[in-house]
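Hi everyone, sorry if this is the wrong subforum. Our group has a chain we'd like a structural model of before ordering constructs, and none of us has done structure prediction before. Sequence below.
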Amino acid sequence: MSPNSMKPGRLLLSLLSFAAGAAVTLVSFSWFSPVSSGLGKRSEAAFPVLPVPPAGAESRSEAGEKAEADRETGNFHLAPELLGLAGLSAPPTVEDVLRAGGLDRQLRMALFLQNATTADLKAMMDRCLDENINEPGLTEGLWLRWVEIDREDALRQPQFMAAFGALAALDPEGAVAAAAKEGRASLSAAMAAIGRSDHTAALALLKQYPEVDVHAVWEGILEGWRKTDPAGAVAAALEKGLGLKETVESWTISDPSAALAWAKNQENPARRRQVLEMALGQLMAADPATALRETGELPPGRLRSELTGKALTALARTDASAALEAARALPNPVDRRKALAGISVGLASSDPALALQIGTDLVVSPAGRAVAGWTYQSADGSVKFGQLENPNFTLEMMGQLMAAAPEASADAFAALPEGASVQAGAMMQTWANRDPEAASRWLRGLPEGSFRNTAIAGLTDWLLHASPEPDFDAAVAWSLAAPPEQQGGLLMSTFQTWKAENPEAARAALDRYPLTPEQRELFLLVLQ
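Answer:
Right subforum, don't worry. Here is the predicted structure as tokens:
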């Protein structure tokens, strides 16, 4: 393939001047491929390019004519005022681009691409890969520029499928012809890229090249199709069994009323549930208050209860008071308790204190039946703490609370009513997974009692199975910090685990600890 086999793309530049002189502003640009067939579609690039100052009102100088030629060929020279706008005094390097953010990064990337060589582009791509940068304004624009200035070099790169995708945006026919020579993967990537901008053209190509990766091409087709005809794209996704979730979610973003009306009208109950969950799940992320209103309009039943609970959890992240008010107003007591439990979990990372308060308020009737929350009420009327209706609820809440505010959450756990110690061990292990030193410091300051004893057992067990290496010495030390009636069991577990790992080290360690004569004799026998 020759770099000259495609007429070079051109940058369409918008010019803006002010009375004070040649000031510039950031605008977008388009890449064009002047091919004759219907595949030659305009493809909007994902990054901005600076305009160049317009020619003056006076007669054009030789330099002005050269600048005109440079703009036609893409051979730009960066004027000082353009560099100044980007906060630079010299053409931007890879480092200059990546250390900037937001519009500054886009601006510097535009300047970088105008003068970049293939070596510069490769250096930028390597940095993006090394640092896991996948911003369209960088990577997509980079490949578009690369295939424009040196198609063959771009297609030789390890990321050749991205290059074929960019080439398809510039020259769809040329991309397909070149990719067909390279093999199935390249052809699939090119056709998928075409599908993102012209799904009808990609559908026609599928008939011509049936050997491609149909799944990959259809992903591109659906991505392009749902931009212009979401209803048609959903019908195609259902028919092909591909990309339904992404297509329904995209439709919900662009036209939530139409998407929800379509979902509600599905005749098959299982399909109706599936697409409603997709559509309302997307709406909950974007507009939880509207999602809550929509769930309230569903027919009574399990689906409405479940989706209402999820909508309330989503709403709590932006408006906790409104979510709590709506949850407490639910007529069904089971739905009400489950919704409050979900809100409690949803608030764990943003407002641990409120989350814990909601959880501890979930108390059932004197009959003693457990509910999804933190506490239950026994037959004698005393409040207990334990694993309740949903076994995973307490641990899920605990994990989120400990991640958001570990010490404050641990203090709150320790202050819970009698019976809370059942979760102290799990709490310590959750905390130790994140910060074992902080967990140990907190435990050392805890007053004596059942909560502390259970927490010691949890931390000791964590130390015996810590990754990458167990800490047997610390496990023995914490075992000895437990009450006498608890020490024997913890020490036995510790030395048995140590024996399985390294029996000689375990026997040698016996003399290092303040064991009673009876304990020492027992563990000598255990370690034989």
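For your construct planning: The two ends are 75 Å apart (CA to CA). Confidence is low (pLDDT under 50) at residues 1-68, 70-74, 363-393.
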